[in-house]
Specification:
single chain, 2 domains, Jelly Rolls, mainly beta, five-stranded mixed beta sheet
Amino acid sequence: MMKSSKLLLAASALALTATAALAQPNNPPPNLPQPGAAAGPQTPPAGNPGADTPPALPGQAAPGGPAAAPGKGQAPAPGGNYTPTFGATDIMNGFPEDPITFDIVAGGQVEAATRSTGDTYCPGYIAEQPDYQINYTAGSWPLYIYAQSDVDTTLVIEAPDGSIHCDDDSAGNLDPLVSFDTPLSGAYYIWVGTYSPGQNPEATLGVSELGGPQDNGSQTAGSTDLDPFGTPTYGEQNITNGFTPDPFTIQIQSGGAVDASTLDPACRGYIYGVPDLRLNYMAGSWPLYISAMSEGDTTIVVLDPNGNWVCDDDAAGNLNPVVAFPMPTSGAYQIWVGTYGSNTLLDATLSISELGPQPYGGAQG
């Protein structure tokens, strides 16, 4: 559809959305600096096995090789052709269910000190093969890898660039934690060891972007602290007025632990502690609509460029929310999609349009 045809569609959409929530200034917060765009993913290094490589279980033969007995044999050589004992998982930065945990068995007969490099000393006893492999796509989030067990455990991690990172008790309670402030994309090979020899306890391996086991919880609940200008869970989007195709949509999960009504009495639902999306919008003569669709009852919370909280619950119909800006301002719009009445996560579609709330706004080809 030609851009000149967009005005006719917009006029029809405006008539259908006369009752949509309009931007009303309420309680502007102090102006805070805006963060920069998230870094793009890097290319994983060649030569490392991916998630499709079948793991060798204790006592079983690895593909193309002899029987793999965790904890026996020589220390693994850096950058080796590893076969993680308990599997591999692909993880994208900004993952919503944080932390992700895996059940493993820690320990082995290899002295972790054989993996020490330079100023990095690796304590404990580990298996010959990694316990787990994380194929991570990095963004602007930090990365935390930790273990929890009833005994004193340790960590040895080979990062995508081949560097070795080790820890014993940084997570507290004799649990190890390794943090990467600016993580690389690629394969992280992880050994969970025991500080003392001859132990093979059950352990939980955790991967998080929020912190160690003492700092974070499941995002189903999440922190009740709000950081309006924190790193958005689903990134940033730059849009200029008159954009095509219209609408822009992104699949997200709604909800969180922050009661939106504490931000402004007009706001409803429960949202996450950082925005779901940051919209950097260049305004023109078009109105701006921000809406969400879900099978559950969702809400919209927007902090506009002027510091106003703009919220809605059901103005788009069918328990779907929309906020309308008839004369939008250029700048950053911090956007949350909430869940009404609880902190349950719901699959939802967030839409940005100049034609009207979706699905009432027509698709612009």
